[in-house]
User: Fold this.
Amino acid sequence: MSTARQLALPFAHVPHFSAADFLEAPSNAAALAWLARDASWPQGRLAMWGPAGSGKTHLLHVWAMRMSAAILPGHVLRFHPIAGPLAIDDADTAPELALLHLLNAAAEAGFPVLLTGRTPPARWRIALPDLASRLRAATAIEIGEPQDDLLRVLLARLLSERQLAVPEAVQDWLRLRLARTPAAMREAAARLDHATFAAGRRANRMLAARVLADMQAADGQAADEHITDEHITDEHTTDGQTTDGEELDRIEKLARLDELSDDRSGHEDFTEQTSPAVPAAARLL
Assistant:
């Protein structure tokens, strides 16, 4: 007898910002090293910068928890008396006067300040000369572009956090067609979560393709997967090794097999749930 499918509920996703959940990689090694020696930050300030989804906010939370620092969102930053270290997320969106007063207050009290932004502080458009000089003097550490292994693990982690059981072949199929950024992995996981809930079925290649098309349409790109595979280099096979193009074909075949298996399972569940019980004697006729 087949078990009934688990009912999906639209619970809000809460990101995990614990130290144990952070994925260490060469792209964030410098930032990790600097966060470990906050006592030696020049003038007690450090700025981490990098693209959206690169892990800046996660690292900021990890450092803040270790230091018992106050976490302040930049876009609603207000000046108030401080009692310890400060962690200002998206500081490049903060009101200048409030940011200046907080930096001055932290410096006078001897508390370290961690800032994050999309670009180095020296490139922020700052009108206040005093604030501009303080930001230029801060040590700025870049979180670099993620490697393929990090993106693979990140996508799997994001799907797991949302309790989505997505076959590895489908994950690879989707990841190889997405923009090679953590932000794209996060958006894909969120969209796939909504798609599976709306469809009332587990994730397969068909739903992954729909998510990909929606993301490409939102970005103004062509929806044809073969046109948007420019980041997959189809090189010639050398020394008997598999090319990226052959690997893509292998992954697509596995994803299609999984999709067929999922469709067959869904059909069997539907048949068992909708067909009336038939006595054994009648089945022999």
Remarks:
- Residues 1-11, 222-244, 265-285 have pLDDT under 50 and may be disordered.
- The two ends are 23 Å apart (CA to CA).
- Residues 244-274 form the longest helix (31 residues).
- The beta strands are 45-49, 70-73, 86-89, 113-117, 139-142.
